[in-house]
Amino acid sequence: MRLTQHSLFSGNATELAALAVECGRGLRLPFDTAKTNERLVRYYVTEGVLDRPERVGRDAAYGFRHLLQLLTARRMADAGITLAAVAHHNRAATTKSLEEGLARPLPTAAEILVQEFMGSTRKKGAERIAQQALAPAHSLAAPPAPDPHKPRPAMALPDLLAAVEHMKAEVMSQVKELEMQAMKMTHELHARQQQADHEHRETRALLREGIEHLHQALRHEMRALVHESLEQLHKPMHQEISALRHENAELAQRVGQLIQRMEAISPPPART
């Protein structure tokens, strides 16, 4: 018998007791079903063994968690465990752990004390977020369609604590994943920066080398232009100098000839 088929149960104390007797027989739980009745349900609520039911007008509405708590309480009480210990266990246990516990051996007194301690240390934190409770999940079997006329039971504190712990674990997992992605992006950016710096240094070196080659080519070209310009200037000057020298030679020759003629014409000097 699967208890999850009753996960959407909602009813009064009489209906809860009747369903508990039916489930106890189906699961062959070792407890006295004859003592499970409406009066016992109300007594367990007073003693804190069962969570307080939801109120629908003047009626009290019990849910699936109350069913698990009642089955667990009857089983533990018939095993000789004190009602206070049973109350501590039921208050601290999640709905899932209550359901799974019905298929396992009964918890020891020490385990019950540990559960009570863990539940009390987280109670304050749960009270601050009690209005943000998540819907309980029961996926072991397909439950029947919910009755729209019956109210949905509120989430119990242990279930809320378990949901909060689950949410916390998911958030921490996402935070760690984001941290890893951030570290990876940082390493990639650092590698890209180093590559960019290396390329920048290589570009500057190539520019310096190109500028030096350009300067050398310009100096060589300027020297060639200056030499060519000087050659072009010197050539006419050499030609003029050669012409002047030739004219001077001709003039000197004419002057010599003229002197010779004058000497031939003039009489010799008188002797005294």
Describe this structure in words.
The chain has 272 residues and is mainly alpha-helical. It has helices at residues 13-27, 38-47, 64-78, 83-92, 95-101, 109-121, 123-128, 157-265; strands at residues 10-11, 54-56, 59-63. The chain starts with 9 loop residues before the first strand and ends in a 7-residue tail after the last helix. Residues 129-143 have low confidence and may be disordered.
Distance between the termini: 183 Å
Unreliable spans are 129-143
Q: Could you name the CATH topology of the largest domain? A: Multidrug-efflux Transporter Regulator, Chain: A, Domain 2
CATH architecture of the largest domain: Orthogonal Bundle
Mean pLDDT metric: 82
Helix content: 55-70%
**Can you write the helix and strand succession as a string?**
EHHEEHHHHHH
The CATH top-level class label of the largest domain: Mainly Alpha
Query: Strand fraction band?
Result: under 5%
Number of separate helices: 8
3D shape: rod-shaped
- Quickly give the structural class: mainly alpha
Strand order of the largest sheet: 1-3-2
Strand tally is 3
Q: The biggest beta sheet, please?
A: 3 strands, antiparallel
Count the domains.
2
